[in-house]
Design brief:
heterodimer; A: 114 residues; alpha+beta; three-stranded mixed β-sheet; three-stranded antiparallel β-sheet; 3 helices; elongated; B: 222 residues; alpha/beta; seven-stranded parallel β-sheet
């Protein structure tokens, strides 16, 4: 259900773009999904097929998903590390004073349309 | 695929909702209505906590309530017994409420003169945290049986909330629930969030929450 809401928003965004740019058909939509965004790509794909085919502009459009690796920076030692393996604790110095740099994106990156 | 071209978009799917939420917040600020978005998992005691607060604060504040559910009007019927204005919003299968739905609900409620409006969001710890409703403040209720590790499992919910109400404190002796550990876990996610232990059934700790609401309403009007 989480993915369905995201798909509805992505479709609304593409439909707005379609009106602004006088598009008649969209063949693909590429989304950038962060590794720790909580979105499960296979669920997203299922929701996409169901919802996109209800839109005149997006009927049959393919969804492509690009994953963005999650990276965290440590405020204590200044180094970065992969978030998924290490969570909030810096593997270099053990500090918990860390901030996610990227990896929670849920974006529409680009579309192919005419 | 002749004639198809690539259009670069590079926009968060939440951008449109975030813009609407900011507009709604600005209009609430203008008319002095403090909108509290109440979130939690199902069964944490949102409705009980809300009913008690509405009953006890109604003599001093003009209060209205928006109940969001996927279906049914069980909660709205319960709130209507307090005499407060209430509207039931159905999300039609969606697991959260967004700023557009919240705006529509406020229009339907016709509560421009209200000091305080509660939005009881859909019981869910994931999606409601992602969609800004345009509320003045976010409150999440965590009940003791859910455990003190919830802020670690649902980080975004705790990042976006201003206040954590720890409900069902009366049963704490029967569970492995460590209030200090919970405070640490909340602070790890969000050092600004306040934590108030309550029991909506016995009334324990509720006065502190009411004062938080009074302060919020007063600050919002300034």
């Amino acid at each position: 259900m989480h993915e369905l809401g995201i798909v509805f928003y992505a479709i609304d965004m593409v439909e707005d773009l379609g009106r602004e740019n006088h598009l008649s058909s969209v063949s693909s939509v590429t989304m950038s999904i962060g590794e720790v965004s909580g979105v499960i790509p296979s669920y997203l794909a299922d929701c996409w097929r169901w919802a996109a085919d209800r839109s005149d502009l997006l009927r049959g459009a393919e969804l492509r998903v690009e994953t963005i690796d999650a990276v965290t920076v440590c405020n204590a030692c200044g180094r970065t590390y992969p978030t998924v393996e290490n969570g909030r604790t810096c593997p270099h110095c053990g500090s918990d004073d860390t901030v996610l740099l990227r990896g929670n994106e849920i974006e529409v990156k680009e579309i192919e349309a005419c | 695929m002749d004639g198809y071209r690539v259009l670069e978009v590079k926009q968060s799917v939440f951008a449109d909702n975030d813009r609407r939420a900011e507009e709604l917040r600005a209009s609430l600020r203008k008319r002095g209505t403090f909108l509290v978005n109440l979130m939690s998992s199902p069964g944490s005691g949102k409705t009980t906590t809300l009913l008690r607060a509405v009953r006890e604060l109604s003599p001093e504040l003009s209060i209205a309530v928006m109940e969001a559910d996927i279906d049914s009007d069980v909660d709205a019927a319960a709130v209507s017994t307090t005499g407060a204005r209430v509207i039931q919003l159905h999300t039609g299968g969606m697991c959260h409420l967004d700023a557009a739905m919240c705006s529509q609900g406020l229009e339907g409620l016709a509560a421009d003169d209200a000091d305080l409006v509660f939005l009881e969001n859909v019981g869910n710890l994931v999606c409601p945290a992602e969609f800004d409703t345009g509320a003045s403040a976010n409150v999440t209720i965590l009940s003791v049986p859910e455990g003190d590790d919830k802020p670690l499992k649902y980080p975004l919910m705790y990042q976006v909330c201003d206040l954590v109400l720890v409900n069902k404190m009366d049963v704490a002796p029967y569970f492995d629930f460590d209030l200090e550990k919970l405070r640490e876990n909340v602070a790890l996610r969000n050092p600004r969030a306040r934590v108030i232990p309550i029991c909506a059934k016995t009334g324990e700790g509720m006065d502190e929450w009411y004062q938080w609401l009074r302060d919020g309403v007063a600050a919002w009007k300034n």
